[in-house]
Predict the structure.
Amino acid sequence: MDISFLGGPQPQCGVGVVAPFDFALDRELWRWVPDDVSLHLTRTPFVPVEVSLDLARLVSEHETLREAVRALIAVEPQVVAYACTSGSFVGGLAGERAMCEAMTQAGELPSVTTSGALLAAFEELGVRRIALVTPYTESVTSSLEEYLAEAGIAVTGRAFLGLTRHIWKVPYRDVVDMARQAVVGAADALFISCTNLPTYDVIPQLEAELRMPVLSANQVTMWAALRSIGARAVGPYQQLLLATQPSPSPSPSPAPAEPEEQGGWTA
């Protein structure tokens, strides 16, 4: 049978993702990705350390990042995203910038981190005060607050679970309960931290209930990485995705149209 009429496959834009060894939400990342973009994931080497500030430092060492990026560039991604919140805030603003520089130098391509993407999302939405939800221990949560304070972001309320493992198993109902606990002051947005905490389906519910933008670690990571290549993240009823436009693309592939059924809350 002659199948030459099929043509294709269609050109794909690639996003390389460096994740910690215990990352379990590959499928969630894909849900933000349009059809003409492929994700290429790699993980940092295993270390026998539970979720903590020590682990955050280990999975963000510059040589670890360089090796991960070198493994990704064989498939020619157009951007590399480091998908770990704690690993990208543990060194403060200067540490986050140094991580991006290390990845960019290793792969000779643009790079973003979760914590850097978060600050970009805050700037895009004009957010200066947030309610904060994390699955972390108090020490890791406090380190995130220090990073945010350094960037001029005030935390008006917080809730955390105190977990050191199996964060990907936390059910949505626990995330919602924490969000309700955290929104106790005048906040411009809610941020749900940790790329290993499931959030995709809970964002629309919380935005409708709380009447404010709800940002999550995986959401801002994918939003920033895709925007950097001129693509738009896919997510129904997520204010960040509806309120912002992608940057000009270095690729000839057009950005996908927004699905008609998507919408957002109105103030």
Notes: DSSP finds eleven helices and eight strands in the chain. The chain has a mean pLDDT of 91.
